[in-house]
């Protein structure tokens, strides 16, 4: 029996190789409706600003040519932000912020107050008459308690940095931790979100590996973020990971903006503390 199988198997394999087992299949995809995308971060002491754009289909060409901004930005909308009995209207004009680079196509004249607990309401009327709404609250700043440099006992030329913050354990808090080397324009060496359940005490530590040398400059940034912003970032990260894996389930973006036109995005207050440290023994 074994001898017979040895004779049949090579012949069967030869037949399979000779057969054309591929077949082209045309898949008709439904037409993609581009969605409005809102990114509005209110930073105390800076003007009211917003980036309003339109999403792209996964299969749409994405060319960074001279028409990129024209094809991406969503202009001619009426944008207002209301707070403390006032209403700020954002003009449809292109503006930039450098280090790190940020682009906005709606900008106001007033600056964002740093009043903790201040409530803000965003209202957008799109050129087609559809409306978008969102709310945000200014959170208290979480200060960096201390930054400590520790050199390795095994290789005293390499060091790590430990960054400590004090957490209010009477409520649930969410944080975004960013670490840059040399300047804010550099790609973040660390950029992640956490909640205060990672610690059983009020003191939370963020660390690096022993990969720093004397004279290196590190920039610590700790954002105190809202639960909706935490959910938004987490969902974006999952969506990016899903796009890179053909076997992953689609991950929807958890937005805190709502309205007609199925908008996506985030409207939030951005409060943070930042510390620059030069590594020395």
**Low-pLDDT segments, ≥5 res:** none
Give the SSE order as H and E letters.
HEEHEEEEEEEEEEEEEEHEEE
Q: Which strands sit side by side, in order, in the main sheet?
A: 4-3-8-9-17
The number of domains is 2
Q: Give the overall form.
A: globular
Label the structural class. mainly beta
Helix content: 10-25%
End-to-end separation: 77 Å
Fraction of residues in β-strands = 35-45%
Classify the fold: give the CATH topology of the largest domain: Immunoglobulin-like
Indicate the CATH class of the largest domain.
Mainly Beta
How can the largest sheet be summarized? Answer: 5 strands, antiparallel
Radius of gyration: 26 Å
Number of strands: 19
**What is the overall number of helices?**
3
- CATH architectural type of the largest domain: Sandwich
Nearest-integer average pLDDT? 87
Structure write-up:
By secondary structure, this protein is mainly β. It has helices at residues 2-18, 68-72, 227-243, and strands at 36-42, 47-54, 78-83, 86-90, 95-97, 102-104, 106-111, 119-125, 131-137, 144-151, 158-166, 174-181, 190-195, 203-207, 212-213, 217-225, 258-259, 264-269, 271-278. The chain folds into two domains: 36-140 and 253-271, Immunoglobulin-like; 144-224 and 274-278, Sandwich (Immunoglobulin-like). The chain contains three helices and 19 strands. The protein has a five-stranded antiparallel sheet with strand order 4-3-8-9-17, with no helix packed on it. The protein has a four-stranded mixed sheet with strand order 7-2-1-18. Strands 10, 11, 14 and 15 form a four-stranded antiparallel sheet that branches. The mean pLDDT is 87.
């Amino acid at each position: 029996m074994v001898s017979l199988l040895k004779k049949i198997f090579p012949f069967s394999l030869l037949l399979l190789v000779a057969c054309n087992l591929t077949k082209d299949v045309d898949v008709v995809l439904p037409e993609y409706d581009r969605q409005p995308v809102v990114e509005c971060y209110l930073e105390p002491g800076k003007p009211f600003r917003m980036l309003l754009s339109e999403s792209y289909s996964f299969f749409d060409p994405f060319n960074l040519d001279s028409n990129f901004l024209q094809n991406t930005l969503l202009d001619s909308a009426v944008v207002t932000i209301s707070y403390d009995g006032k209403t700020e209207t954002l003009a449809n004009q292109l503006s930039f912020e450098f280090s790190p680079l940020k682009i906005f196509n709606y900008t106001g004249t007033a600056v964002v107050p740093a009043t903790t607990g201040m409530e803000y309401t965003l209202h957008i009327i799109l050129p087609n008459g559809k409306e978008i709404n969102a709310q945000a609250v200014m959170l208290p700043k979480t200060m960096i308690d201390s930054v400590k440099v520790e050199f390795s006992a095994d290789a005293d030329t390499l060091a790590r940095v430990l960054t400590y913050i004090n957490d209010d354990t009477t409520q649930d808090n969410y944080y975004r931790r960013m670490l840059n080397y040399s300047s804010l324009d550099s790609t973040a060496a660390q950029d992640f979100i956490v909640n205060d359940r990672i610690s059983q005490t009020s003191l939370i530590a963020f660390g690096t590996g022993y990969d720093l040398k004397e004279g290196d400059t590190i920039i610590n940034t700790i954002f105190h973020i809202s639960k909706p912003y935490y959910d938004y970032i987490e969902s974006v990260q999952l969506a990016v990971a899903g796009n890179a894996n053909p076997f992953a389930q689609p991950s929807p973006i958890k937005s805190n903006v709502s309205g007609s036109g199925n908008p996506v995005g985030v409207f939030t207050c951005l409060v943070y503390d930042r510390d620059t440290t030069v590594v020395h023994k």
